[in-house]
Amino acid sequence: MIDLAIDDAVAEITLNAPEKLNALSLDALQQMDAAYADAEASGVRSLVLRGEGRAFCAGRDIAGVDPETDDVPGYLGAVERLMRRIAGFPAPTFAAVHGACLGVGLGLAIATDIVYVADGAKVGSPFANLGALLDSGGHALLYERLGAHRALDLIYTGELLNGADAVAAGLFSRAMPADELLGFTRERARRAASGPTTAFLASKRLIGRMRDERLWDAVAEESRGQEALRATADYREGFAAFQQKRQPEFRGE
């Protein structure tokens, strides 16, 4: 599910469940946390995060999840721990995003230092179809970079941005054709690994301090809100509709 490869001073972590568009279960989150810990222990000087197959990450794997017994705090707690691990990684980190980048996938991208994205990637919050709350720091990202009106527009509609539009809106760093994405990202990671790592980390810590209060406050508030929504009829209907591959029928309850 989660692969780690190290080539000289560059680590590459791959989400490798293409049959489910790299959607992440709790076990996969824990595997990913361990992969980051192993990469850190190896002393690499840069890291690339990518997804195998047609997508970067389609969000949480809710196949077979019962909303009545779902351990929302446990799952979102694991997401926050992983995001903090990624954000605090002691080397420059890069994400190569293609296909779907949704939900927790968006959170992993948020936590990475630099995101390069394929022109045709699909980025955003599909939670309008689930009766659930955008999580993984998405509120902080959208508000900070798009403003309140555009953020709520995307949340209410569930509209997804393509990669080019996400870059134009300021969400990510650069967009490019999909067939150029991974090679470009790997080249940038190699360049960073041969650079002044100590200076890069000083900048990373400085930018991190400016970002952290809003981001981690949002993550905590999202977790509380998600747990509260779990008791609603719309949340249960959203889950059931997704699992049954049909349109949900929400009643505002």
Short overview:
The protein has 253 residues and is of the alpha/beta class. The chain is 50% helix and 16% strand.
Give the mean pLDDT.
91
The overall strand count is 9
Detail the poorly predicted runs. Answer: none
Estimate percent helicity.
Answer: 40-55%
Strand order of the largest sheet: 1-2-3-4-6-9
H/E topology pattern: EEHEHEEHEEHHEHEHHH
* Total number of helices: 9
The gross shape turns out to be: globular
- Into which percentage range does the β-strand content fall? 15-25%
Distance from N terminus to C terminus (CA atoms, Å) equals 37 Å
Radius of gyration: 18 Å
What about the largest sheet?
Answer: 6 strands, mixed
Structural category: alpha/beta
Structural description of this entry:
The protein is built from nine helices and nine strands. The chain has 253 residues and is of the alpha/beta class. The strands form two sheets. It has a six-stranded mixed β-sheet, sandwiched between helices. It has a three-stranded mixed β-sheet with strand order 5-7-8. The chain is globular. The N and C termini lie far apart (37 Å).
Write the layout of secondary structure elements.
Layout: E1 2-7, E2 10-15, H1 26-42, E3 46-51, H2 72-87, E4 93-97, E5 100-102, H3 104-111, E6 114-118, E7 122-124, H4 138-146, H5 148-157, E8 160-162, H6 163-168, E9 174-176, H7 178-193, H8 197-229, H9 233-243
Parallel strand pairs: 2-3, 3-4, 4-6, 5-7, 6-9
Antiparallel strand pairs: 1-2, 7-8
Helix pairs in contact: 1-2, 2-3, 2-8, 4-5, 4-8
